[in-house]
Amino acid sequence: MEDCRCAAGPVMEDLNPTFLFTWTGTRKSGKDEDYHSHDILEMAFVLSGTGRYRVDGKTFSIQEGDLLIFNPGVRHQALYCPEVEIPATEFFVGFSDIQFQGIPANTMPLPNGAILLHTTGELRRKLYRICTAMQEEKAVSRQGRYFMMKAYLMQLILLVIREQCEPVEKSKGCSFESVNKKYLVEQIINYFEDHYSEKISLDQIAENMYLSPFYISKIFKSETGETPIRHLIDIRLENAMELLEGGWQGSIQEVAARVGYDDAYHFSKLFKKRYGISPSQARKKA
After folding, report:
1. Are 286 and 267 in contact (CB under 8 A)?
2. Staple 264 to which of 45, 105, 176, 253, CB 3.0 to 4.6 Å?
């Protein structure tokens, strides 16, 4: 059994939760949900919009990126807010069977007994990805769905617990742990997907991984069949196409900048080589 400890955070001796359900919804009707509580744990992540909650007699405003934790016995109620421009869309997950040292069973701790965690930056992006992945997994009903949902749930729980730990100081830039070739490549791809709009160089990645650019390129190509820079270009061009097809009204120069290119002419050449049409033609076609 693994004993997971972190400074100034809850101590977890084991993690084997029972996944119960997920639900996604938007409060659009005039009828408020009943004021109620559960004998299980429930977490709600606000995917978009704003709203309000009544929790144990207090009213809380919520917004995109907020995470609410309703421990057993906590009375709560989502309030209908006709005055808001975009009503809150929330992702709920219900579960049980967790235990932390010195804390009642089936209770998720938050600092000072809070029920609301405001998230930003990387944590918000990670929570959003996991919630949307659980939505997709629920929709397709493939073999092993329960275990996939449980695996995603465990990631959610661990992210919340890690948020309460004192951060470990790390070097600037893109730093990765090189456990094996496949893991190394996955970490590079994840970094590309998160930072494709920024200036990225293979030398920068190599320096932070304490490896040579040649070695990284060799491993990456052996695992994916293409070079790291080619893969980065593909990610950038795919995101550019999504902007153009989605009706984004910025100039081609602005589209180029949004996906990491300072030179609109160079961007257009790469785009036409990939798709056979110019960015302007892609926009008109859409």
Report:
1. no
2. 253
